[in-house]
Design brief:
- The chain is an alpha/beta fold.
- It has a domain of 258 residues: Aspartate Aminotransferase, domain 2 (3-Layer(aba) Sandwich).
- It is 34% helix and 9% strand.
- It has 17 helices and 12 strands.
- It binds pyridoxal-5'-phosphate (PLP).
């Protein structure tokens, strides 16, 4: 690679190779410097007409130095960003085995629908009379979500799962306050296997979090819930299927205990893609549940896109749903923005977002639902579970399962017991997967399992792609057990960068770019 001073640099990966290249590039794997390194400051990539002379009012504030934005020609700019985009591992380039995140295929149809000008080009401050179609889409999606979950109401505006949790817990808080118990019900029960956003959400709005220990089979035990339940408990936050990939079989009984004690049942619905079309959370006694549209209904969170976390609410919590919401009146659909005009019996706790939610995500989610149909959504859930079990069963003899070889839901959880005495850790194993062209599974989560490896294939992988993935993991596992330690502890060997010092990067990050030393100095 030549940097801006025309000085070749030495990328580690390229030069550890016997076939050294001058540029540091390895065929299509091109070393990409920062635009600040390749750009020139005395040029510009665009031609703008010279500005008219104006009398400056900046006085002493007038800048003396150049603005410092690098200039690149159009092809240089394009190549820079296209190459950067190619360094991402994405669902479009390979199987994404991350568990708990559901990186599923985002059909191109969704993208086409989201780009329709009537959806893509509207502005949230446009007069409502000009966006009736968008309101209808929000209303139709809300209807699907309520029907699928068997719940009375849905707040569409939260912008991701964690935001939805906040919305649901704020509705619970408002309901408790309305009963005059705001000062006495302060405790929220959260199982140890929960996603970190659950306790964080509860703590953020002033609840005291109490962990519920996991049972030997990875689920929450009724007796533990009973022990902790009391008049001081506001809610339980339960994930189902839980983060170990197991369905909480006592869920109805737990909901009963929770309700009898006067508390609410918040369900983390991030794993809803295992049961959508099969189970209605409303029938399980859930009071509030967020749905990660970007996990369950195939919008591109995995590609770094925005999330969307509508929250379905039971009849008991529906009055507290935040504004804005869409309402059907005799005159058609209207947008309720003002809490005071929310209607009889409605007591919105407030507002979560400036506008109405993630419109692009709504379009994608509805496109996904309509193209699948009710039976298709059910099949997607069944296939997600089937695929995860295929992986579990195909690897059970070479890797270890913390809760025994029992069927899982949409993700298969392994631990690191099988790596004992090999000198190889979960992290090493995951790094070796990178050399094989796979994005590693979720590691060290959930925390209740030692050296956890959580694999979620989703429904969208074919048998052939699962077979290759399984064969790769088997080959790695057998190699680890044979003592081929270097394949793991030194991995990745083939990535543009080798293993990074992640601890140091987190503890003492260098966040400021400094220009390279001038060429004369460097030559000495
Ligand atoms: C992803 C996830 C969340 C948070 O959702 P975001 O959309 O990332 O905010 C919460 N709980 C579980 C179990 C999750 O997997």
């Amino acid at each position: 690679m030549l940097n801006n001073q025309g000085r070749p640099t030495t990328p580690a990966a390229a030069n550890s190779n016997t076939h050294r290249t001058f540029t540091g590039n390895k065929a299509l794997m091109v070393e990409e410097p920062l635009s600040f390194e390749t750009g020139r400051y005395d040029l510009t990539g665009v031609d703008l007409p010279a500005p008219k002379k104006v009398k400056s009012r900046l006085g002493k504030m007038k800048r003396k130095s150049e603005i410092g934005i690098p200039a690149l020609s159009e092809p240089e700019t394009m190549r820079h960003f296209v190459r950067l985009s190619q360094k991402n591992f994405g669902i479009d380039t390979g199987l994404f085995s991350l568990g708990s995140c559901t990186m599923k295929h985002n059909p191109r149809l969704n993208e086409r629908m989201a780009r329709l000008p009537g959806f893509a080009d509207i502005h949230p401050l446009q007069p409502v009379s000009t966006v009736k179609g968008a309101l209808e889409l929000i209303d139709m999606l809300a209807h699907w979500l309520k029907t699928l979950t068997g719940m009375g109401a849905v707040a569409m505006s939260p912008k991701a799962g964690a935001h939805g949790e906040l919305c649901g817990m704020m509705a619970i808080k408002a309901a408790i306050a309305a009963r005059g118990e705001g000062e006495t019900r302060k405790i929220v029960l959260v199982p140890e296997s929960a996603h970190g956003t659950n306790p964080a959400t509860a703590a953020l709005i002033g609840f005291i979090v109490k962990p519920v220990p996991a049972d030997v089979d990875g689920t929450v035990h009724m007796d533990e819930v009973k022990k902790l339940m009391g008049p001081d408990v506001a809610a339980i936050m339960l994930t189902n299927p839980n983060t170990c990939g197991i369905f909480e079989k006592d869920i109805i009984a737990i909901a009963k205990v929770v309700h009898e004690a006067g508390a609410y049942f918040y369900c983390d619905g991030a794993n809803y893609n295992a049961i959508a079309g099969k189970v209605r959370p409303g029938d399980l006694g859930v009071d509030a549940m967020h749905i990660n549209l970007h996990k369950t209904f195939s919008t591109p969170h995995g590609g770094g896109g925005p999330g969307s976390g509508p929250v379905v609410l039971s009849e008991r919590l529906a009055p507290y749903a935040p504004v804005p919401f869409v309402r059907l009146t005799a005159k058609g659909l209207e947008l309720v923005e003002d809490a005071a005009k929310a209607g009889k019996g409605m007591k919105p706790f407030g507002r979560m977002t400036a506008f109405h939610g993630q419109m692009g995500m709504f379009v994608r989610a509805l496109a996904y639902m309509l193209s699948h149909g009710a039976d298709g959504i059910r099949q997607a859930s069944e296939d997600a579970v089937l695929n995860a079990n295929y992986i579990r069963a195909s690897l059970a003899d070479v890797m270890s399962l913390p809760f025994g070889n029992q069927p899982c839901m949409h993700e298969a959880l392994f631990d690191d017991a099988w790596l004992k005495d090999t000198g190889i850790t979960t992290l090493d194993y995951a790094k070796a997967m990178i050399d094989e062209g796979y994005h590693p599974m979720t590691m060290y989560f959930p925390l209740v399992v030692h050296g956890a490896m959580l694999v979620e294939p989703t429904e969208s992988e074919s048998k052939a792609s699962l077979d290759l993935f399984i064969a790769t993991l088997r080959d790695l596992a057998i190699s680890a057990k044979k003592g081929e330690t270097e394949r793991f502890t030194g991995a990745p060997y083939h990535a543009p960068r080798r293993r990074l010092d992640e601890t140091r990067a987190a503890r003492s990050p260098i966040l400021k770019w400094s220009p390279p030393a001038p060429i004369a100095e460097a030559a000495e």
